[in-house]
Amino acid sequence: MIRTFAGRAVLVTAATAVVSVIVTALVALPIAVRTANTSARADLVDKAAIAVELLAAERPAARQRIVTRLRDDGIAVYLIRRGTADRPGLPDRVVRQVAAGAVVDTRGVVDGRAVLIAGSPLAGNDAGVVLIRDAVSGTAGRVLGGVWMALLAGLLGGVGAGALLARLVSRPLKQAALAAARLSAGDRSVRLAVRPPAEAAELATALNQLGAALQISEGRERDFLLSVSHELRTPLSTIRGYAEALADGVVPGEEAAQAGATMLAEAERLDRLIADLLVLSRLEAADLPLDVVPVDLADLVGAAGEAWAPRCGPDGPRLSVRLPRGPVLVHTDPGRIRQVIDGLCENALRVVPAGKPLVLVVRAGPDGGVVEVRDGGPGLTDDDLAVAFQRGALQQRYRHVRRTGSGLGLALAARLVARLGGTIAAGHAPEGGAMFTVTVPYPIRT
């Protein structure tokens, strides 16, 4: 069995050439035979008319010369006088028709041979002249003989065309396969030249785009891992330092409680980071369990405001919660939406100066319930808004400028909202800082 594309291309083109030649021969064969016989019959009729004129006018010696010349051309001459042929063999119907003064142009059998018959009457005495010649034979054989040559030529041409086609088409495929192998081996710099035909150009473009996307993705992954390793190392260093101090007895008794509280806070920070990583991995694997039910966003955000109020004390942002007068019923997982709101509030708390506003807003939108988390902090630039929900993008930009988190919070919020069928957007808040708008779908009405 032929396994290569080149071999199959050659086989298909050769088979196509052979079939084309055979079909052409089968169609041309009867047409060629029919055309040859038609031409021969027309020629025979013309000669019969000429023979009648000459035989009627010439002397007997001249008549003999005419008959001899026709016979030399393979044409037999029958003379009919008084309704009788000069020799046997002619079909009776032909003799009767010519004797009756009719012109005959037909086919028949004479002496067991298929012949063409042309007859014309002579003036007077039920006389006439009948010419016969063998029906055209050998035409089919000549056509069939030519078919073999055409078949051989078509086969050779098909093999040549198939080899050329296979070379033209298989070359970009082989190059694409080699490029894919290099990509799988870790070489992200490989690129293919984009050349015709269009399909090969599309394949090369797709592989080039894949290589570029992998290069960008792996760059982001490296940056993300560096960021996460930094976030892990900082609390671990703190915990290790206090643990060594406690083990060595360096920390006096009255400071041990403070050291334990610091270690506990750093451990909780590590726990949150690990929990965020696990949730993100499960979201990307699409196996995070969700409990989607009808929820009143006003109650949910009101409860969140009460929980965050103690953390926004005199030394923190000025928290305000703006709720509608009536309920805003949506279809969502209340625990996950609360997780999103808590994450956005925690991000704001990290950068919003004391006394600046932190606003939670609930309203009914055209496509669903809307939750806004707005603040009066340093905010985000237009370039920041474009990458706000990419893992570690903002953390990488601002890690040496202001306090940052792990870089996972906004990415986690975006994926959670998307899994719940909603949308999240980043923008500029009227309070001067950042604004995050979460839209949650309404319940499906039946």
Q: Could you give a short account of the major beta sheet? A: 5 strands, antiparallel
From the alpha carbons, calculate the radius of gyration and give it in angstroms. Answer: 50 Å
What proportion of the residues is helical, as a percent range? 55-70%
SSE-based structural type: alpha+beta
C-alpha termini separation? 59 Å
Please tell me what the overall shape is.
Answer: rod-shaped
* Portion in beta strands: 15-25%
Number of strands: 12
Number of helices: 11
Mean pLDDT: 77
Flag low-confidence runs: none
Molecular structure report:
With 446 residues, the protein is α+β, with helices and mostly antiparallel strands. 57% of the residues lie in helices and 17% in strands. A 5-stranded antiparallel sheet has the order 2-1-5-4-3, sandwiched between helices. It has a 5-stranded mixed sheet with strand order 7-9-10-12-11. Strand 9 (357-364) and strand 10 form a beta hairpin. Helix 4 packs parallel to helix 5 (198-248) and helix 7 runs parallel beside helix 8 (334-351). The relative contact order is 0.07. The model has no long low-confidence stretch (mean pLDDT 77).
Summarize this entry quickly.
By secondary structure, this protein is an alpha+beta fold. It has helices at 5-57, 60-72, 92-99, 139-184, 198-248, 253-284, 297-308, 334-351, 382-387, 393-398, 409-419, and strands at 76-81, 84-85, 104-110, 113-122, 127-134, 293-296, 318-322, 329-332, 357-364, 368-375, 423-428, 434-441.
